[in-house]
Amino acid sequence: MSQLDSKHSEKEITICSNSDTETIPLTRWGKFLNSFKQAELEEYTTNGQLNDLEKAIAATAKSPLRSELKNRHLQMIAIGGAIGTGLFVGSGNALASGGPGALLIGWGIIGVMIYCTVQVMGELAVCFPVNGGFNVYTTRFVDTSLGFAMGWNYALLWLVSVPIELVAAAITIQYWNDTINGAVWVAIFFTLISLINLFGVRGYGEAEFVFSIVKVIAVVGFVILGVVIACGGGPHGGYIGAKYWHNPGAFSNGFKGVCSIFVSAAFSFSGTELVGLAAAETENPRKTLPKAAKQVFWRITLFYIVSLTVVGCIVPYNDPRLGTSSDASASPFVIAITNAGIGGLPTVMNIVILISVLSVGNSSVYASSRTLTSLACQGFAPRQLAYIDKAGRPIISIAVNLIFGLLSFLAAYKNQGTIFDWMYALCGLSTIFTWGSICLAHLRFRYAMKVQGRNAHDELTFTAYGGIYSSVFGLFVNGLVLVVQFYVALWPIGGTPNAYDFFETYLSAAVVIVCYVGHKLYSRNWKLYIRGKDVDLDTGRSETDLDLIKQQVAEEKEWLSAQPCELRNMSILERLPVGLLEMGHDRVWLINSSELQHGPVLVESHVSEVRDKFQRRIHGCVSATFGDVVDSGDVNPVELQIRTVVEHHLPVEVPVLHHQLLVRRDVVQFDSGRSIDLTGENRLRDQTVGCRSERQRGDLLARDGEVVMGVGVRDD
């Protein structure tokens, strides 16, 4: 009696017996349903020897989250991901409170702090691209209780942002139509954000790519238009220049006005840290994250400092429309265009503001779901939230976020203002605590390396500009913001001390303190920090050989420098058709490349752009890495070395490639250097050229009559 074994994958169901093998492809609906099944998790053995911290580190080091964010996604998220209502609308209230001079001081100081914070976060994320990103660093480098508090602080920040942004989007729509109930628009935008996040991290990345392009174009366009208006080029004419810096003046409300600016500036930069959170879902973080971190400087300079300088020149801080509401009508960008008498453009700016609101709502679901999943993996949240499906989606955490987003329908409630004021209060200082914890974690990380006798410059592929001084400056500025906000909360501008307003302003600080003290009491761990010699500097670390990487980078530069100029400027996808191979970490492995220019090839690369472009033409290719196939335990692999020599004529010499291909023991390999015609009735019987046995059945991986890679199954 034959033994029957059934194996289910995302693309097909394979039924194997002693005599034959039958593959039943899943339907589209079947693939969709199958994608919601839980992904296989890498098991680790505790043997009762791991404490809670070590378990948390081990659980977040390996994650089934998919690395599908490409370089272009991360670059646009870094450049325009955080541009939103904080800049377009919130800057109006800040201008009214402090004046154009205070506006530049506040945004300038916070901008430098953000640049330093993103640099140190990039160093940690490149070294430790773990599930949860910077939310895990506080736990493993500083203290578990502080990590618990900071994790929940960040999760709550984005949880409450979902309903807030949905309501803001509905309010923005009222610029064109205020007769339709806002709940209708809330439902539409809620559905849109839900669908985007059901497409996984790739859906989030593509949506943010488009949103960011629109926002970047809008800001650049406004800067150009603002300069024209300041020079008297608007329909109303008249040179403005820096007139409003003299009358009504550069500062409003003196020193207290400057102090009031910092929180508004910090709010406008919220989301900058998402680059670090996405490290675990980014292809080749060693290359993409440093590039994204460097882009922050240009975003701060152009999209914030330059645009706000222009705003301060063409909108006086005593304009009665500033700070009167939280919708687009109070935006200094819209006010400037309206004052210039330019028709139609206010509508365009409102569309941009609407897109910005939806972008923040989309990012809110992404950030909060990944943070909740990370908290569950660390044992800081219900373990059900750690569920990640086969498509790499933390589907239960996403569902929790969307359920929380239903609070947006409270917009129809008559007392909704009070509820949303307290939601805003939760967001107030949350990012300040988050950025401060990143800088503190970096300081402890560098200290642990020093104590353990390890050199950062010898071990790290990317180090923060300024090193620990960036962390010290970032920590200092974040502490300064907390102090000045405490001062403004106690003695508000134009008002008297009010306990209600004070606690509303400092609500997020209360949440952090309660979480920290509560976890200390629950865990009975009274240590304030993890000693440097006890810090784990290896688990979850990206597997890189620094000397090898440096050698490969040098070889790549030397090799490319010898090529013609037009070839040096090609991207990796452009080099492939002419036989040029990317060297270094993104090395491309070509199998059966005898017809490289015309036929399909099998590509194994760290770059998903390459894999997606070529593997979509290949029927039945396994997308998982060879290491994942081995670790899954579903196959019994043997090592089969394939040596491929590119024999056809190319513009340049292509080196011989080697690779270890892991296959099932009951599967044998065809000659990878042959091209076999699969058309005709005898495909299963006669096309066995290069097989090890004449009894092998030609179960070939191919499409459209072209062999990509031949695989046969033994009949006996």
Q: What is the CATH class name of the largest domain?
A: Mainly Alpha
Spans of at least 5 consecutive residues with low confidence: 1-24, 44-48, 571-607, 613-716
The dominant shape is globular
Number of strands: 10
Note down, in words, how this protein is organized.
A hairpin with a 3-residue loop joins strand 1 and strand 2. The chain has a 3-stranded antiparallel β-sheet with strand order 1-2-3, with no helix packed on it. Strands 8-10-9 form a 3-stranded antiparallel β-sheet, with no helix packed on it. Strands 4-5 form a two-stranded antiparallel sheet. The protein has 27 helices and 10 strands. The longest helix is centred in the N-terminal third of the chain and has 38 residues. Helices cover 54% and strands 7% of the residues. By secondary structure, the protein is mainly alpha-helical. Helix 3 runs parallel beside helix 13 and helix 7 runs antiparallel to helix 18. The protein folds into 3 domains: 30 residues, no CATH class; 482 residues, Amino acid/polyamine transporter I, CATH 1.20.1740.10; 168 residues, no CATH class. The radius of gyration is 28 Å and the shape is globular.
Keywords:
716 residues, mainly alpha, Amino acid/polyamine transporter I, 3 domains, three-stranded antiparallel beta sheet, 7% strand, globular, disordered C terminus
